């Protein structure tokens, strides 16, 4: 049985490889794992595995350096690179370094099986040539899909000239040599979830959404042979559908719009998820796909400020929605008052503008646009001068997300009344010097003292309190004299000392009870604060 060493600094990757890949069925035995290149080299010298699977970017020693060190010892050892960095420079470097395979994270189980079986075959040299060919043919479609994914990701993020396109690669992937391109971006509106345990539920929803998109496209495009579509899972919330069509075909854009709208309806009906959808214009050639994609992203931004679950085509994205216009003078005067920090005047001007919005039959999308600008102005003006660079922080994103969830003009304006009053109140508290201690006291009493045994962070606390993380960090240190992490760890260690005094618990139990998931790290923190290890403290 062949032996293998796994090297990756991400324990989730290692655990996934150990749990989900049928190594025994492939005649492979995992002899060891390592968390960085140097540890991997030491394990190789100690265990002498038949081959190695390694990540590229790791601390101490990266995957390429590890490959060079191993091949200096034994040039015949096969190396498989597993990396989340998709760029041609890494691929070329992998080949020049004597790497046998270059897999992109996250690879499918089938891809890993294929590579491992191929390496095992190379090592044993006992399998028939026909078996290798059959295995390759079975996996060829998987390889093509992986190549297509990498190809289109590259096209929407990097601008190419037509003569720079890889013609042979395009032909191998089964794509048309010449094609029009059009990008549709579908951005899922993720429900409010904060518990880590719910991440699996989200991934299941995302997986089901992807299946709906592919099934509907397959069904709809079966009637239009001159057109195909590729689905790119671009991020945790975004899908990019790339429509390819024969330049000589005369299909109508209505077909694309109807198809896209039908996809949104089914996602909402079966997955109960809202979607922001933007459609770019038709472009001539793969090298212009980036332009259509950027147009689709721009249209998604329009969708955020208007009606969800509707396709916004780029041509129409700048057209005004029906409804009465708003006095720009009133909006401008309010913005001026906010940035001049004239808070009473700002409140009075808001009430004037509010009455105009609610009595003038202004459309909801236009209302949201006006209110978003006002809310952002208040939020920005509330920061201290040295915090102006932080205006894109999560607190502002949360504020605008709440605003966009309002389903009617009246609901939106009621929300704005509360928000404006709250922000002006917070600003006045800051000016009076009252808020700082109150906010820090709340962090200490409501989070540190009550939740010290949980895995919480300052970023989560800031989000819950609707304040900027960096602002809260600076405020906490100014009031307590210590950074948040230092204060938090000291409090946890005080609680740990109380548990040690009872004599009832082992070190690892105390570690878990005071919020440390790793007992080794707990012991290091304990000693750095008390000067003793947990086991020495009660002697």
Automatic annotation (TrEMBL):
Keywords for this protein: DNA-binding, Phosphoprotein, Transcription, Transcription regulation
Matches recorded under CDD domains: REC_YesN-like
One of the GO biological process terms: phosphorelay signal transduction system
Keyword Transcription regulation: yes
Domain Response regulatory: 3-120
InterPro entries: CheY-like_superfamily (IPR011006), Homeodomain-like_sf (IPR009057), HTH_AraC (IPR018060), HTH_AraC-typ_CS (IPR018062), Sig_transdc_resp-reg_receiver (IPR001789), Tscrpt_reg_AraC-type_HTH (IPR020449)
Record protein name field: Helix-turn-helix protein
Organism: Cohnella lupini
């Amino acid at each position: 049985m062949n032996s293998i060493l796994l090297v990756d600094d991400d324990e989730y990757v290692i655990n996934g490889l150990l749990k989900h890949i049928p190594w025994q069925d492939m005649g492979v035995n995992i002899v060891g794992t390592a968390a960085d290149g140097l540890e991997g080299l030491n394990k190789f010298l100690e265990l002498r595995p038949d081959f190695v699977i390694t990540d590229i970017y790791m601390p101490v020693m990266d995957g390429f350096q590890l490959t060079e060190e191993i091949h200096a010892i034994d040039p015949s050892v096969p190396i498989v690179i597993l990396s989340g960095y998709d760029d041609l420079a890494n691929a070329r470097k992998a080949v020049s370094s004597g790497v046998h395979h270059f897999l992109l994270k996250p690879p499918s189980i089938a891809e890993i099986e294929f590579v491992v079986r191929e390496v095992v075959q190379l090592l044993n040299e006992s399998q028939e040539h026909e078996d290798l060919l059959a295995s390759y043919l079975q996996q060829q479609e998987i390889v093509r899909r992986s190549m297509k994914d990498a190809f289109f990701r590259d096209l929407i993020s990097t601008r190419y000239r037509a003569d720079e396109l890889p013609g042979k690669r395009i032909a191998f992937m089964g794509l048309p040599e010449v094609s029009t391109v059009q990008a549709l971006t579908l951005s899922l509106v993720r429900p409010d979830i904060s518990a880590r345990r719910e991440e699996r539920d989200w991934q299941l929803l995302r997986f089901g959404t992807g299946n709906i998109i592919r099934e509907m496209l397959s069904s709809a495009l079966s009637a239009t042979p001159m057109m195909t579509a590729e689905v790119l899972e671009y991020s945790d919330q975004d899908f990019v559908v790339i429509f390819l069509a024969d330049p000589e075909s005369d299909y109508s854009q209505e077909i694309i719009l109807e198809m896209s709208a039908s996809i949104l309806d089914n996602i909402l009906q079966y997955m109960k998820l809202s979607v922001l959808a933007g459609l770019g214009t038709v472009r001539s050639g793969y090298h212009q796909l980036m332009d259509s994609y950027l147009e689709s992203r721009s249209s998604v931004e329009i969708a955020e400020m208007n009606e969800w679950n509707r396709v916004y085509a780029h041509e129409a994205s700048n057209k005004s929605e029906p409804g009465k216009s708003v006095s720009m003078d009133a909006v401008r005067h309010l913005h001026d008052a906010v940035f001049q920090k004239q808070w009473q005047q700002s409140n009075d001007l808001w009430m004037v503008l509010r009455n105009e919005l609610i009595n003038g039959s202004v459309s909801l999308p236009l209302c949201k646009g006006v209110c978003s600008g006002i809310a952002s102005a208040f939020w920005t003006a509330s920061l201290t001068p040295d915090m102006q660079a932080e205006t894109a922080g999560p607190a502002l994103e949360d504020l605008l997300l709440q605003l966009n969830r309002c389903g009617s003009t009246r609901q939106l304006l009621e929300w704005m009344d509360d928000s404006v009053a709250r922000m002006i109140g917070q600003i006045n508290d800051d000016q009076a010097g009252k808020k700082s201690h109150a906010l820090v006291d709340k962090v200490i009493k409501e989070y540190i003292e009550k939740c010290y045994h949980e895995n919480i962070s300052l970023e989560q606390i800031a989000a819950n309190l609707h304040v900027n993380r960096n602002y809260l960090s600076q405020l906490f240190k100014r009031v307590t004299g210590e950074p948040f992490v230092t204060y938090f760890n000291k409090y946890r260690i005080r609680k740990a000392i109380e548990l040690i005094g009872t004599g009832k618990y082992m070190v690892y139990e105390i570690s878990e009870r005071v919020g440390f998931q790793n007992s080794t790290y707990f012991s290091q923190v304990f000693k750095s604060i008390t000067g003793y290890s947990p086991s020495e403290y009660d002697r």
